[in-house]
Design a protein that fits this description.
There is one protein chain. With 328 residues, this protein is of the alpha/beta class. The chain has one domain: Alpha-Beta Complex (Inosine-uridine Nucleoside N-ribohydrolase, Chain A). Helix content is 38%, strand content 16%. The chain is built from 14 helices and 14 strands. An 8-stranded mixed β-sheet has the order 3-2-1-4-5-6-13-10, sandwiched between helices. Strands 7-8 form a two-stranded antiparallel sheet. Strands 9-14 form a two-stranded antiparallel sheet. The structure holds beta-D-ribofuranose and calcium ion. Beta-D-ribofuranose (BDR) binds next to helix 2, helix 8 and helix 13.
Length: 328
């Protein structure tokens, strides 16, 4: 699955990031800028942790801070497919979405046109090469599919952070936040016929930064790493109730690292995945066909999604070394 390291780093693939910037989104964005394995050519924002407009502002400010102010950022969907945006998750990500950290305002503005329009434009420009990393609700990606039904053929791969295969949900007992925020869009994206990798809570809840890692970031000579360490202070506070100690799950950075082949999955069966769009207690659940669990996941008819259940190495050392490699 992995390309030879030198080839990947000398000739990084073009990436489109769809995000709801958010603290772990900010870490994923910094990772995608810092890694030599990705060429970030466009970013779309969607309402989730914060509104799509606030997410774009955070993204532009982070890009300026990290020395890449010219990467185009487009504002995407404010509301989910069926319903209205309910105000985000300030208790998790802070009122401004990045843990209350004040970044210097970028003078750059979002580009004209919506995030789905930017995605479709880039997919045509980099036909067969563009890779999507989707780390927010899937509203923009589903809209892009409606605008360009051939999108799956134009895209080399899509990596989605979301869902839960065997792990519990984090918004309801069974639903993960990105899928719960727009189950209809998630269902559309999971049903499309593309080269797709899902990075669910099963693997992100075991990829955790500890306080010692945060202290490492705070002591970094790189201002971007130090700001990320500060943001994590807020995120760690939220996770105390969940893990019983200050630490945080690295949902979005892990999806980004898997997408660029910075970390390799250890177990990632290709299985059928559907999303519950009913209005009962299952709403937003990823119904993953895990029945092959006891016999090594034999081929499943109609399966198209690779679901990452574990990774081959510990994630924090890779994340920290990438964020501190003098690439900002
Ligand atoms: C996902 O939800 C958001 O709060 C995070 O940024 C991540 O994308 C985890 O469930
Ligand atoms: Ca996110």
């Amino acid at each position: 699955m992995a390309e030879p390291e030198t080839m990947n780093q000398l000739n990084p693939a073009p990436f489109y990031l769809d995000c709801d910037t958010g603290i772990d989104d900010a870490l994923a964005l910094a990772y995608l800028i810092a890694t030599p394995r990705a060429n970030l050519v466009g970013i779309g924002t969607v309402s989730g942790n914060v509104s799509a407009a606030a997410g774009a502002r955070n993204t532009l400010d982070l890009l300026k801070f990290a020395g890449h102010p010219d990467i185009p950022v487009a504002i995407g969907a404010h509301d989910p497919q069926n319903g209205v945006f309910r105000g985000g998750a300030p208790h998790v990500h802070g009122d401004n979405g990045i843990g209350g950290v004040d970044l210097i305002r970028s003078q750059h503005q979002p580009v004209q046109g919506s995030a789905p329009e930017l995605l479709v434009q880039l997919a045509r420009e980099y036909a067969g090469e563009l890779r999507i990393v989707a780390i927010g609700p899937l509203t923009n990606i589903a809209e892009a599919l409606r605008m360009e039904p051939k999108l799956p053929e134009l895209i080399a791969e899509i990596t989605v952070m979301g869902g839960a295969a065997l792990a519990p949900g984090n918004i309801t007992p069974v639903a993960e936040a990105n899928f719960a925020n727009d189950p209809e869009a998630a269902a559309d994206v999971m049903a499309a016929d593309w080269n797709m990798t899902l990075v669910p809570l099963d693997v992100t809840m075991t990829s955790v930064l500890e306080e010692s890692h945060r202290q490492e970031l705070l002591a970094s000579p790189h201002p971007v790493s130090r700001a990320l360490g500060e943001m994590l202070g807020h995120y760690f506070g939220f996770y105390v109730e969940i893990f019983g100690r200050p630490c945080a799950a690295m949902h979005d950075p892990l999806a980004a690292a898997i997408a660029v082949r910075g970390v390799e999955p250890a177990l990632a069966p290709t299985i059928r995945v559907e999303v519950d769009t009913t209005s009962g207690p299952g709403r937003g659940q990823t119904v993953c066909d895990m029945r092959g669990l006891y016999v090594g996941y034999p081929d499943q008819r109609g399966a198209r999604c690779r679901v990452v259940l574990s990774i081959a190495e510990e994630f924090p050392p890779h994340l920290l070394s990438t964020l501190q490699a003098d690439r900002f």
